[in-house]
């Protein structure tokens, strides 16, 4: 009896009180299904059965919710007290058969073993069926009456207890599955988004300056809350970046908070941000638990993140490989970040860009990994959370996790690969390696030169144990390394078939992390890092050039792989040493740099550069290890005073150096050739900041005027220098011609007047014609190339507008075509001569990366250039008198002109005045829309005369020096005389640039005005800096600004005035607190929220808001005066 009671109690022990009530209720409902119908009128047995049933039923009713096991025991006692003789109608044969069957089915259980029935519930079910048959078909048998009675009692008892046991089992299973169903619903994938919605954030990333492995850029990624009380968010290292940065988190309800970059790991791809939980309104993020122990192969996972900049994108997958080595991204790139010395997980998912930093969660919503990267084959790489959790424990306590290093890159190989290298599994096990419990061993992949392990470990060494502890994987190895900083560790390694023990000192990894960067001439310099040293073959020494596009060392800006090891033959092992060297160099002194490529030790070079004449503010950025923010301070006294100007001695030396006894015309041309180098300060006039060099031609040594191609100097903000033999002098921009690709620059004539011949340029009586033989002279002052050519044609030059940069276009210009065609890559400038007279110049055309035209050079008559040269000779003021008709002309043959209505008399008059003319000119495009009430030219108009003079060449109608011009035209077959107003050609000689919030403001130049539908102000933004505040808001380039923070903008001075008004009031306090290493900074994130109204070139109005960042984008302006000798002056405000 006890067994039955205990079993029932145990079956329901795991349920709640409500479950027990349900069990009792269900038992009472299911009991009437017991078999008792066939013996209803036969004898007292049926009455006894009914009585038993009644007792059980009444017991259930009276004791609902109580101990059901005691009720069952009471009923069994009642049944066993019945007299066997009461079963008068039982059949002894049938009973015997039933008893036998019952004995067989119950494995030896007889009617004396009633207490053991409960242990065989499956067999009891079969016995119940047999007993039912026996009760229905039994007949009296007096020979074995007692035996039959016992069998009958057994059958009745089985008939009662078996259904009861079945009911109990069913009820227990019901509630078991119900409970697990509720749990499944709680952790179902369908509810995953709701559970994690408030905990996963989109992060807008801004890298304002290039540093270490990152360039200045803007992008999006993901992070997730791991400590809601302290406001800690976990993401990737490449999301935070090692250098100055700005991050803005957007929660699911679109609340935006700026983040504090608290910590990034020196090696591994994870970082921690902080936000102030008190600033978050209306939502309460729950921390996502870090559960690295739950990761296993085959685990179904979801990647929840900002995939493709779409918030809360969920992508499914399955973890497959758990012990792959860290992936190598951009294997051939220039120092980009790659994780090292850790395992990575691999899973096939469809997550792409923007999902970096996403939690990789299981069905319970626990993070088992963090998304780090992927490839094009839909294979994604997840970083394990073991090192994350190690660091997280320190971060929560406000501490920096200890990180040690041997300056070694390890890789994981399998035991099979180890055996191929000679390491037998048995031998490894005998030395303490965990062969059976691991998938492989660690091998030395790279040893950084001059590091702690240099000369101790060798590439190919297999690590068996460290400090007598087995290290089958990265966690075990670096658990020891991180704990032994500053101490020596012993390592048991397998090398060349032998086991040996070596010792190495563990270095503090933070010691070889760069934490400062110097902005010098828009070039950022910092200590060379271990991260990049490990990716190449260099030691952690020297100063890395993290090049900005308008830096001092642009010849090395493309690959960003150069490290400075010496300046002016003095070593520069670190940034401090470099600053000391620079303090001893005068501003005008050359800098002789020794540089190496850290990816290729054979690539070593020395080159010369100079401090620019105009240089942006020199700033030092220093990272606070306590806050993660960067303090900014100006660097004073870095550039010494300029050297004395070039004296007569050097001038005479140069004169002797370049003296040539050959007084031929070609020799004089060669002496007028000078090497010119240009380095722009900032973008302007549709041109970026590419450094260029080429040849210029001295056209007036008395005024110091040099002619060069616009391809050499497309940007008016350039620092310009010229090399005369062994002497380098600075030049100023004198004049950029608005119609032709011609630029005049100027040097101080007092220095070199005596040694430069005067070419005596003058305007010839006639132009070069087709078929004229000419001589082309081109080269430098050290090499001159001379070749014979023929004028093979004259053609109207037409360059198209680049929609990307809107640089200057050249139209309504007739160019000279020479045969044979000169190589455009060989000539920046050439002189076209006839009989020792300069008749024209050959110039390379400026071009951008998006240029579509194929013309690379243009030949111009000298007569087109001389008017501007005459103005520069006569005055010190930059010329600004060119006016145009703002239309584009095309040639029209004389025969076609007749069809347009040109009379035969007019055609004869044209041929009489210009016999070589074979065409006239028609308006083919309107470049600037004029008011409807203004008289202007129309498409299709044919221009016959200007001020009553026949139009013989395109030059006659290309430009003017008056406000109104009298034209005789043919319009729709009728000859008309019109007074057409001219338009001043604006913006070619830009003299004011404003830099604020990462944007470059200037006056709109002519090409912009021609393309603009509605120029609402005289303030145009050509471009902005990548990583700037304006870039974070996805602004468009090429726009007019009409309003900033409710202040109307008309001129650049308005921009300066408003920029001063919205200056960040917290910047000084912020830098003080960062420099003092305060633990948490709240409420003073740098910047001011401003609203800007812009008008696109197509006339579309756009209103946007952004937050300024004066910390990394200090405001300044460039100005130059109206004189040709005036240089650019930079002013901070």
The percent range for helix content is: 10-25%
Distance linking N and C termini: 97 Å
Quickly count the helices: 25
Radius of gyration: 45 Å
Judged by helices, strands and strand pairing, the structural class is alpha+beta
Number of strands: 59
Silhouette: elongated
Beta-strand share of residues: 25-35%
Average pLDDT: 80
The unreliable regions are 1-149, 646-657
Q: What does the main sheet amount to?
A: 9 strands, antiparallel
Gist of the model:
It is built from 25 helices and 59 strands. By secondary structure, it is α+β, with helices and mostly antiparallel strands.
Structure description:
By secondary structure, the protein is of the alpha+beta class. About 25% of the residues lie in helices and about 30% in strands. It has 25 helices and 59 strands. The strands form ten sheets. Strands 22, 23, 24, 25, 26, 27, 28, 29 and 30 form a nine-stranded antiparallel β-sheet that branches. Strands 51, 52, 53, 54, 55, 56, 57, 58 and 59 form a nine-stranded antiparallel β-sheet that branches. A hairpin with a 4-residue loop joins β2 and β3. α3 runs antiparallel to α4 (about 70-80), α5 runs parallel beside α7 and α6 (about 120-135) crosses α7 (about 145-185). The chain is elongated and about 140 Å long. It starts with a helix and ends with a strand. Mean pLDDT is about 80; it is low at about 1-150 and about 645-655.
């Amino acid at each position: 009896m006890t067994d039955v009671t205990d079993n029932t109690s145990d079956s329901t022990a795991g349920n709640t009180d409500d479950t027990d009530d349900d069990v009792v209720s269900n038992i009472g409902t299911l009991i009437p299904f017991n078999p008792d119908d066939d013996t209803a009128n036969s004898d007292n047995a049926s009455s006894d059965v009914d009585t038993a049933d009644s007792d059980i039923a009444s017991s259930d009713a009276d004791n609902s919710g109580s101990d059901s096991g005691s009720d069952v025991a009471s009923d069994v006692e009642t049944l066993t007290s019945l007299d066997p003789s009461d079963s008068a109608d039982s059949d002894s044969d049938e009973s015997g058969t039933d008893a036998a069957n019952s004995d067989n089915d119950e494995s030896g259980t007889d009617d004396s073993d009633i207490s053991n029935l409960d242990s065989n519930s499956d067999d009891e079910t079969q016995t119940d069926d047999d007993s039912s048959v026996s009760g229905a078909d039994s007949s009296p048998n007096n020979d074995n009456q007692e035996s039959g009675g016992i069998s009958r009692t057994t059958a009745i008892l089985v008939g009662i207890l078996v259904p009861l046991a079945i009911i109990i089992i069913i009820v227990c299973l019901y509630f078991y599955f119900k409970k697990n169903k509720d749990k499944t619903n709680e952790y179902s994938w369908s509810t995953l988004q709701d559970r994690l919605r408030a905990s996963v954030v989109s992060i807008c990333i801004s890298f304002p300056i290039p540093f270490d492995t990152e360039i200045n850029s803007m992008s999006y990624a993901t992070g997730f809350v791991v400590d809601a009380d302290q406001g800690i968010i976990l993401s990737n290292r490449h999301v935070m970046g090692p250098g100055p940065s700005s991050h803005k988190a957007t929660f699911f309800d679109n609340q935006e908070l700026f983040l504090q970059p608290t910590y990034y790991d020196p090696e591994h791809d994870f970082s921690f941000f902080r936000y102030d939980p008190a600033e978050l309104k209306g939502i309460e993020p729950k921390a996502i638990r870090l559960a690295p122990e739950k990761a296993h192969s085959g685990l179904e996972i979801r990647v929840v993140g900002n995939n493709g900049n779409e918030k809360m994108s969920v992508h499914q997958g399955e973890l497959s490989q758990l012990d792959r080595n860290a992936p190598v991204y951009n294997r051939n790139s220039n120092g980009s970040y790659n994780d090292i010395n850790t395992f990575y997980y691999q899973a096939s998912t469809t997550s792409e860009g923007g999902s970096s930093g996403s939690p990789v969660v299981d069905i319970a919503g626990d993070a088992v990994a963090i998304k780090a990267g992927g490839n094009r084959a839909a294979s994604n790489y997840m970083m394990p959370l073991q090192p994350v959790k190690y660091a997280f424990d320190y971060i929560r306590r406000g501490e920096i996790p200890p990180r040690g290093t041997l300056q070694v890159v390890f890789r994981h190989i399998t035991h099979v690969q180890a055996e191929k290298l000679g390491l037998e599994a048995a031998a490894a096990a005998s030395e303490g390696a965990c062969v059976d419990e691991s998938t492989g061993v660690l091998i030395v992949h790279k040893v950084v030169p001059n590091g702690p392990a240099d000369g101790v470990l060798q590439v190919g060494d297999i690590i068996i144990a460290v400090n007598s502890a087995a290290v089958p994987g990265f966690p075990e190895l670096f658990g020891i390394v991180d704990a032994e900083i500053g101490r020596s560790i012993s390592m048991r390694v397998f090398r060349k078939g032998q086991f040996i023990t070596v010792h190495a000192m563990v270095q503090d990894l933070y010691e070889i992390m760069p934490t400062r960067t110097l902005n010098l001439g828009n070039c950022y310099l910092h200590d060379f890092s271990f991260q990049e040293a490990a990716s190449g073959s260099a030691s952690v020494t020297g100063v890395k050039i993290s090049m900005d596009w308008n830096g001092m060392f642009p010849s090395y800006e493309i690959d960003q792989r150069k490290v400075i090891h010496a300046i002016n033959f003095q070593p520069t092992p670190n940034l401090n040493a470099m600053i000391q060297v620079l303090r001893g160099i005068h501003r005008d002194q050359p800098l002789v740099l020794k540089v190496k490529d850290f990816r290729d030790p054979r690539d070593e070079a020395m080159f010369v550069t100079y401090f620019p004449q105009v240089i942006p503010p020199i700033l030092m950025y220093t990272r606070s290890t306590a806050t993660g923010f960067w303090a900014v301070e100006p660097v004073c006294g870095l550039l010494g005073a300029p050297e004395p100007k070039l004296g007569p001695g050097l001038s005479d030396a140069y004169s002797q150096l370049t003296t040539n006894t050959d007084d031929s015309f070609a020799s004089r041309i060669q002496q007028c050739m000078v090497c010119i180098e240009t380095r722009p300060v900032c973008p302007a006039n549709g041109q970026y900041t590419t450094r260029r060099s080429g040849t210029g031609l001295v056209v007036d040594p008395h005024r110091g005027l040099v002619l060069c191609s616009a391809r050499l100097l497309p940007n008016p903000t350039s620092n310009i220098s010229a090399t005369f033999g062994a002497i380098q002098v600075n030049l100023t921009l004198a004049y950029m011609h608005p119609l032709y690709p011609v630029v005049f620059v100027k040097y101080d004539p007092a220095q070199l007047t005596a040694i430069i011949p005067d070419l005596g340029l003058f305007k010839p009586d006639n132009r070069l014609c087709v078929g004229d033989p000419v001589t082309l002279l081109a080269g430098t002052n050290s090499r001159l190339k001379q070749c014979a050519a023929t004028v093979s044609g004259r053609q109207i030059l037409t360059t198209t507008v680049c929609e990307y940069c809107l640089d200057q276009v050249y139209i309504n210009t007739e160019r000279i075509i020479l045969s044979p065609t000169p190589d455009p890559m060989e000539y920046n400038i050439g002189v076209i001569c006839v009989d020792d007279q300069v008749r024209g110049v050959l110039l390379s055309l400026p071009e951008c990366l998006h240029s579509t035209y194929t013309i690379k050079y243009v030949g111009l008559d000298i007569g087109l250039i001389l008017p501007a040269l005459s103005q520069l000779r006569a005055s010190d003021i930059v010329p600004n008198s060119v006016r145009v008709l703002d239309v584009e002309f095309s040639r029209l043959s004389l025969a076609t002109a007749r069809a347009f209505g040109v009379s035969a008399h007019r055609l004869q008059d044209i041929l009489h005045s210009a016999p070589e003319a074979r065409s006239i000119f028609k308006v083919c495009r309107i470049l600037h829309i004029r008011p409807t009430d203004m008289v202007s030219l129309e498409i299709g108009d044919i221009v016959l005369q200007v001020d009553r003079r026949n139009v013989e060449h395109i030059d006659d109608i290309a430009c003017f020096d008056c406000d109104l011009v009298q034209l005789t035209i043919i319009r729709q077959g009728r000859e008309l005389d019109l007074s057409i107003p001219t338009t001043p050609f604006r913006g070619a000689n830009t003299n004011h640039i404003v830099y604020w919030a990462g944007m470059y403001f200037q006056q709109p130049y002519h090409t912009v005005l021609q393309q603009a539908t509605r120029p609402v102000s005289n303030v145009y933004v050509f471009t902005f800096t990548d990583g700037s505040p304006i870039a974070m808001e996805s602004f468009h380039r090429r726009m007019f600004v009409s309003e900033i923070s409710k202040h109307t903008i008309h001129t650049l001075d308005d921009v300066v005035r408003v920029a001063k008004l919205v200056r960040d009031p917290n910047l000084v306090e912020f830098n003080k607190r960062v420099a003092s290493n305060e633990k948490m900074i709240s409420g003073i994130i740098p910047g001011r929220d401003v609203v800007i109204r812009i008008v696109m070139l197509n006339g579309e109005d756009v209103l946007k808001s952004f937050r300024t960042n004066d910390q990394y984008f200090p405001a300044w302006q460039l100005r130059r005066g109206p004189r040709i000798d005036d240089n650019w002056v930079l002013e901070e405000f």
